[in-house]
Amino acid sequence: MGLTIKRRTLLRAAWGALLALAVLAALDGWRLAADERLNARISHGPLPPDDDPNAPPELRFAQAYAMAASGAGEAALTRYGALHADTALGQAARYNGANLLLRQGIALHAAGQGGQALALIELAKEGYREVLRHDALDWAARYNLERAQRLVPDPEGEDEEPAAPRRGAERAATTMRGYSPGLP
To answer: Which of 7, 16, 28, 90 is deepest in the core (most CB within 10 A)?
Structure first.
């Protein structure tokens, strides 16, 4: 009788595991179908307006990427900026936006417009720093930040704290005790 209980328990455990795997496979299939619909909408569907709150962030990201590739840099930066709050795509949007700013800055620098190039490169550096604040191991952002630093280095000593006065240092002659300048 003990042997039949073990067989029955093993059979129930096997059926339970099989049912769990079937549920997970169905869930995976549902996610795959949703991703395929989103991919079809990105490649063939109509573009939603800029202020459409129902558009998935992935679609808005793909549209920003397509705009940047077609040369509409300002519109792409606006779309990327709207995605910064989204945690999943926010990092990628910040990184792509910084790349776009750096490319525009390099083009302006080559064209001899140093002032405008400086502003764009500084914005790109801040974008890379923001990416690195969230993920310090993002090597692509580190590389691009270093590249931007070589174009426009940060001023020396900007981030340094002022030196604290020594503890036993004298302040001024008027506040020193026991000092007589010898006046009548």
So the answer is: 90
Round to whole Å and give the CA distance between 166 and 40.
Answer: 67
If one counts every other C-beta atom within 10 angstroms of the C-beta of residue 145, the result is 21
| CATH number of residue 112's parent domain | 1.25.40.10
Whether the per-residue pLDDT at 50 is higher than 60: the answer is no
Q: Which DSSP string do the residues of 28-91 spell out, in sequence order?
A: HHHHHHHHHHHHHHHHHSPPPPTT-TTS-HHHHHHHHHHHHHHT-HHHHHHHHHHTTT-HHHHH
74 with 150, same domain: the answer is: yes
Domain count, the chain: 2
What proportion of the chain, given as a percentage, has pLDDT over 70? Answer: 74
Residue type present at position 9:
T
How many DSSP H helices and E strands does the chain contain?
6, 0
